[in-house]
Amino acid sequence: MSGDTVLEVKNLVKHFPITSRGVLMKKQVGIVHAVDGVSFSVKRGETFGLVGETGCGKTTTARAILFLDPPTSGEIYFDGKEVSRVFRSKNKAAILKLRRKMQYIFQNPYASLDPRMTVADIIMEPLLIHRHVSKEKWYDRLYELLRLVGLEEYHAERYPHEFSGGQRQRICIARALAVEPELLIADEPVASLDVSVRAQILNLLQELQQKFKITYLYISHDLSTVRHICHRIAVMYLGKFVEIADTDDLFESPLHPYTQALISSIPVPDPDAKTKRTRLPGEVPSPINPPAGCRFQPRCIYSKEHNCVENAPELFDVGHGHLVACEKACN
Amino acid sequence: MEPKELLKIENLTTYFDTWAGIVKAVDGVSLEVREGETLGLVGESGSGKSVTALSILRIVPRPGKIINGRIIYKGENLLEKTESDMQKIRGKEIAYIFQDPATSLNPVFNIANQLIEVITRHQNVTKKEALEKAIELFKLVEIADPEIKIWNYPHQLSGGMKQRIAVARALSCQPSLLLADEPTTALDVTIQAQILDLLKNLKQKLRMAMILITHDMGVVAGVADRITVLYAGRVCESASTRTIFRNPLHPYTRALLEAVPSLALKREKLKVIPGAIPNLIELPSGCRFNPRCEFAKQGICTTKIPELEEIEPDHYVACVRAREIEAESRFRSLSQ
Fold this sequence. Notes:
The complex is a heterodimer. By secondary structure, chain A is α/β, with parallel strands linked by helices. Helices cover 31% and strands 24% of the residues of chain A. Chain A has an eight-stranded mixed β-sheet, sandwiched between helices. The longest helix of chain A has 18 residues. Chain B is an alpha/beta fold. Chain B has an eight-stranded mixed β-sheet with strand order 6-7-8-3-9-10-12-11, sandwiched between helices. A four-stranded antiparallel β-sheet of chain B has the order 2-1-4-5, covered by helices on one side. The longest helix of chain B has 18 residues. Chain B starts with a strand and ends with a helix. Chains A and B meet through α7, α8, α9 and α10 of A and α7, α8, α9, α10 and α11 of B.
């Protein structure tokens, strides 16, 4: 493993059982295949994008990495260490140490801040838990963090309801940065913000990355922001990766038919844009009974020419670190 | 021949009288929709897009109240109509598609019931005929197996399917004007593309006019003929789609277009609009955009509320400095 890989995920699987109440005990009646064997690695200081539509398993992947929902199987390495061994060891000090290095920014800043805590309480809570800063320096750290994310010192004594969505997201970022993490998982951090505020937060994330060399795992369904902020992108469909590539590579020469359709579905803010859109028929199938073979096969225009129902394609390197899981694209 | 005017809103003012103060959600909005055209109503949250649309049908929720203005639809002022006259217009003449299909359909009735209700209400048909019409509508919005799907309940359908049904319900009485309030915001991009195509095709097929409310510049670029940009309850700029994108004159429109990350452009710093949307109870004095505007001039912009002015033919801008900005942009394009 190369030294500059921060996060490596191997064959991560997360299944959720569906149970119905039986006579005496719960019966398992099905399985939601939320994440079904994804592998990727994130280099230090880069922004790795996880893109896909609702229900494809982006958030579940992120939550499994942090053991917020322990994965069903698979290996996760952070800085070369097995994450699951630490989390399952019940060694509280070790878990805390690991948690400090990986932080999470949630999608909705209206739900992820406790309305009864002041901003100071919110940002200083991680300091209280991790105790990596001596008590005398807590307030210095608080004001430093507030300035860092573009807030003022007098904001510290206010409550979350006094802030706009963009400011709330700044508070969330400050809270995540309080413990000096190496990896920041940003789960749709701008999806619930207004267009004019989105740019502020995206720029802030980029500035912080340059300043502290933080690695981002950036989850989004919005391809235009992903293109803006990410260095590498993985496209997810129904619990599996269909394509991983450098951002420019992915947008200039997408190989998987799903990626192609996804990119061409984005409305372009230009009235004269040539619309040669590839329309996807139908909708995303249920992850309870995913289609046999390639999961995209029922909606794919090329599936008839190839044996997509029988062979589930694996990710295949077509050069320059561009991986694609498709029979047609590989040939 | 100039297309006929279908709807004209003059100086619409809708306030919400809350315990915290008067929320000036819509404060003197004027716009027009011509027959068969799509008007894109663009703005961020709190700009008054939805309240404008709700005011047209006079279904503003309490404590909202239309204080002032005229809404002329086919030559008649809707604000002077009685409630029973309005009920004949809602759904029949002017239909509404709500943002979230999950909440705009009634969960305790099956789809057939909900469509039959609208059809029998406005048309003189029996339930059986209404059901046939409903199945026809299902085919129109391209739903497979309409005879089976129509007996489903909303929870059995996906988000995209529900929005198709909301479209079908809105179109059931062949309205002349469709108000689509963020019809694709709750949907995924691939489904959004499907629904936008559907709306575009149906609009042509049925020759109706549409007001498409959205915050997404990409969506309006592909669908709208003309665009009206709202900010904090007032119109900033109103022009054809091409003009808005090629020659925007209001500083807000310009900033909005530049703040959107583009697929075509490479990674660089995004242009930022400083600050946040103003509080609608305590609005800044003068032009509402002045605290965030890079062109704002002390004295002028902070005291005078700019009125909509026709800067070029069919290009209306509410900015005192619009002419200067225009001259500057013309100079820049000449010098390039």
